[in-house]
Request: fold
Amino acid sequence: MISMRPLTDIKGIGEEKAVHFHDLGIRTVEDLVDYFPFRYEDNELRDLRDVKHEERITLEGKVHSEPSLRYFGKKKSRLTVRILVGRYLITAVMFNRAFLKKSFSLGQTVTVTGKWDQHRMTLTVFEVKFSPFNPEQTIEPVYHAGGKVTVKAIRKSIRTALNQYSEEIPEVLPPQIRAKYKLIPRTQAFEYIHFPNDRNELKHARRRFVYEELLLFQLKMQTFRKMERERTKGTAQKIPEDSVKEFMDELPFKLTDAQNRVVKEILKDLQKPYKMNRLLQGDVGSGKTVVAAISLYASFLAGYQGALMVPTEILAEQHFESLQGLLAPYGLSLELLTSSIKGKKRKEILERLANGEVDVLLGTHALIQEEVAFQKLGLVITDEQHRFGVEQRRILRQKGLNPDVLYMTATPIPRTLAISVFGDMDVSTIDEMPAGRKPIETYWAKPEMLERVLAFTKKELEKGRQAYVICPLIEESDKLDVQNAIDVHAQLQFALPDYKVGLMHGRLHSDEKEAVMESFSKNETQVLVSTTVVEVGVNVPNASVMIIYDAERFGLSQLHQLRGRVGRGEEQSFCILLADPKSEVGKERMQIMTETNDGFVLSQKDLELRGPGDFFGRKQSGMPEFKVADLIHDYRVLEIARQDAQALVESEAFWKDSQYHPLRKYLEDEGVLTGEKLD
Ligand code: ADP
Ligand code: MG
Reply:
């Protein structure tokens, strides 16, 4: 087993060398062959006519002049030699390699790699080979070297290791999976990844390792999922489907196909005897609330209580109103529990909840942490879960509760991330908007165009519409030159004397916030200057203008969320991004906002521009790190691996047959089978 062999088992590596390799984290023969190149250099021969200025190229030619050597000071030198490459006579320059002078002889064929200066017909040489170009070595792997270990030493040791021990490299993928996807054997893949003869071999090696890596990852996730299901007995809710269908038919609108599909997925989960653990993602305005309502109603009919938790109290109140409207007519009793509900009223709600008289409880995410006791909790729905999820699950479990859980999010997560970060969850996606929506028109304006933006806003206000104005900060800050809500509020009050301009930010008390919001939703306030507290969920259909100051400071997903506050009514809505980004990426981000209204496209773009690590913000990243696979480019493989992993762990053969032994052993080594990672 190469995993047990110390490096010193490799010919040419003694104790001393082994220590240097340890510094790179390489301790065993397995570690060494697992040490993959981070890039490859392409040394194909090029025709000089096609080469661009400053490109890195490899040329083959004949030495055409005696080399000339010049010294600068003691150690610095410049070695120049003329080389005839095809019809061209070029100059090859080598710095500080005086020792090479003797190696050149007239008429000899050499291969040189370096940076091309088109104007001087000169190559600054990185590497010389005193032999004709070898087409077998066109692709050169480059490794992260360090300390006393050079790239060359790594290459050489890996070569020896593969020669000595390739027989001992274990295959982990079962034969029929390898056959199905035409994946090359593991031993061969190691050979190709370290010593590819051409791009094609490299491609096959990569293909194999990407699949292997993603399959192992998904096996872990799917095993978690299976074990979690098996160890926590959920409830098989008995849902009278006809009554649910009636409810759906009586809604004031026809559900979209996507809504129908996700409702079906959720109801199916509720009826199964395991705990639902499902992420429902759908863009702003795609109609998640009604899906929540249907689910709560179904659970109610089955005899269970439900809870809906949201990030802010404003949102809790808004949801309360919409759900009340949908569910109260069907005899459900709903209650709202926020921090402003205190004393006797609070006590009474809690009592009725414990008695089972309250059917649906709404509140903020803090709800779950408090001393709230349900009589028979069957379904928990949380909105904007990706900020709170894991913690909540743990709390629920600690309380001995095993309700079905639905996490709703309006921040569309690229599917690759959804199924990797939330790999142990099921994902439902509403990828369709209710018919008849007018897409929001988005413009990007430089700050100096503010006058025009305000004139435009005034026109909308004259038509009876309302406007949001978002600023990144509350108060002026010395450090950051960003617009702040308090200043902007003062400015706009002055600029728009005929309208009432409100101010909203996180430091207001909850009753103050409530008053500001209420005034805006009743159109007593026409313009609302706010920080991002209005980001999620707030619904004022008459608002048709969204102005975002310093828009370059926000992520694409957040801008999209903010934009989603408008476009909720019949009228054409507008979003204006005031921004002066300095970087190309910043400009690209503003540009893409003006080009698409599709949250999934934006989130994918966000992922590409910012990278997976940044996507969820630093604090909550939890992104798995992959060695070969790349979540942006290999997402299709990720999906396939997920399906395969799911099928495997659900099959009996997987847990018995010897061909799956290496995969089971992997799960065991990762501590998955003991269940310790579930908490
Ligand atoms: P979100 O997914 O952002 O939470 P909401 O649930 O708030 O979206 O829905 C946005 C608006 O669309 C609400 O006014 C809702 O009543 C309406 N709506 C939801 N589904 C449909 C539909 N199928 N057809 C028409 N309007 C719908
Ligand atoms: Mg919503």
